[in-house]
Amino acid sequence: MNSVSSLLDGFGNLGLEIRRFELNDGDCALYAAEEFRKKLGFGYVVEGTIVLCAEREYELRQHTLCVWGGNTLDDVIGKSYDGRCVFLGITVNYEDIFNLVVDERKNLNRKATFLQVHHYLESFFHTIPASVTAQLLLGQLLKVPYKGRLGQMYREIKGMELILESMQQFFLQKEGCCEMCTMHTKCARVWQVMRDNLEHPMSIGELARTVGMSETSLKRAFRAMYGDSIFASFQRHRMCEARKLLEESSYSIAEVAYRVGYESPGHFSRAFSRYYGVSPTKCRRGEGDGIRH
Prior knowledge:
Layout lengths: L2 E7 L7 E7 L3 E5 L7 E9 L2 E5 L1 E5 L3 E6 L6 E5 L4 E9 H7 L23 E6 L2 H11 L5 H25 L5 H19 L7 H7 L4 H12 L3 H19 L4 H7 L5 H12 L3 H5 L9
Antiparallel strand pairs: 1-2, 2-9, 3-8, 4-7, 4-9, 5-6, 5-8, 7-10
Helix pairs in contact: 2-3, 4-6
């Protein structure tokens, strides 16, 4: 079942409105066309993969940013791709953004030509891999440590920081920054390939060849983007999937081991116990109340 929750109502600075969409099945109307006559939309794929339909279809994977808007834009429809997807949408007043960058016009890149036009906004849709800064801000925005008015203020501040970071990535980066964007795209591709081949793990060399990078460059770029090594990220993901299978499926421990890429159930059990502090058997029995991570 699809669900939508409002994190910020749009009555503060820049008309900032934040919605969290959780998509599980079928189409979900994210935004109506008339909402974007005077607004810009920024989107963030928090989890899974989403297919956004905005005049045409765009498949966006985890850790992808997008920005869209325009007078001729159709309704924005979203649907999950192969399972659960979490998407964060932020909208702001176009007029406020136009005035905000008035002193930066000479620094805008080609994607930002729409910010030179005051009264008529052509429809557009751009995507880019999320920077490490954007990912950190997104995490802070989704895990607010305060309640009430202080929590609302915190969301607004973090939302504005996220908008500024997104504008920096989309509209203020010079063409010379494209190499970094390419690196981020390749790392995102590697992460997806790792997840798609969970039962048959690929070596770092194989992953590097998949995206045309050297092993050293890939390891350095991946750590910069995700804040951890390729192996640690993959291990965390496979242990999370293993725990989910143990708790929610009827697969035997051996079957769970194979499904997360272990040829030996014994090797899997030892790795699982080291990671969570309990054995797969105890986890299945529901004896993992003190489970780590």
